[in-house]
Amino acid sequence: MTPDSDSPLQASDFDELDAILVDLASRDDAVPPWEFLEGAMAALICTRRPIEASEWMPALLGTGPLPTVPHGDGTHFPSTERYERFMALWARREAEVRAALLADVDSLADERSYHPELVDLRGAVAAMPEAERPRTDGEPLPAFGQAWAEGFLAVVELWEDDWVPPRDKETAGWIHDALDAIAAVVEDDRGTPELNLHEEEAPPSVSQARLDELDAAIWAVYELRRIWTSLGPRSEPVRQAATPGRNDPCPCGSGKKYKKCHGA
C-alpha cells in the first residue's frame, strides 16, 4: 500500500488508468474505456450481493482466471505489477464512490456527493483545430455520460439474477423507474448544445437537457443503492428432500420400511 492509498484519485491517476486500459485493449479491442468501467463500478456497489474482482474482471475486461497469464481468447495484464497497480487504483476509486453514495446529501452541489468521472469527448474534439480532429467515418462520438450509463446497465444485465426486482410492487416500481432514468443517458443527447465541458470557450457540445438527465441518473444510483442495501442479498429457497412414503424403504439403508425405522 502506498501513502496515497486512501486518497481520492487525481487527474494523473485517471490518466494512468486510461494508459493501462489502452494497453489491455491492444490485446483485445473489446476492453472498454474507463468511463464505462466507472458506471460498472457504481452498479457493482449497488448490487445486492458483493461481487468479487475474480467474478467481474473476466466479465468486464475479458481476462482469464489468472489475469496476468496470456491466453488465446481475451486479454491479460502484461505483469503482476501492472495488475496490482490497476487494482490499487480501482480500490481507491471504489472507496471514494462508496463513501459518496453513503453520504447523506440533499444536493449534487455538495462536495461529498457522487460525481462520475466523465469526459466530454464531443467537446474535446470540437475544441481541436479542424485539421487535427480525428476521423469518425460518419459515426457519432459518444454523448456526455453515455458510456457511464452503458457500463452501469451492463452490470445489471450480466448479473440479472441479483437485480431481479422483489415481489413488492411499490419497491419494484422504484427500481424500474431508477433504471429508466439511467437508461435515458444511454440515448444520444438530442438537445441543443449549450455548453462545452472540456473547454469553456470552445463550441458547445452538451445540452442542458443532457445535464438534467445525468443529474436524474445519479440520484437514481443513490436510490438503487438504498433499496438493495435495505433488501440485502437474495436468500435462496430452502429445498428439502422429499419425505419417503410410510411403506417405502428407509433411506438410511437399514432395509426396514420407513414407518418402522426413522419414520416411527
UniProtKB/TrEMBL annotation:
InterPro entries assigned: SEC_C_motif, YgfB-like, YgfB-like_sf
Signal peptide: none
Disordered: region residues: 235-256
Coiled-coil residue windows: none
Pfam families: SEC-C, UPF0149
Superkingdom per UniProt: Bacteria
Designated name of the protein: Zinc chelation protein SecC
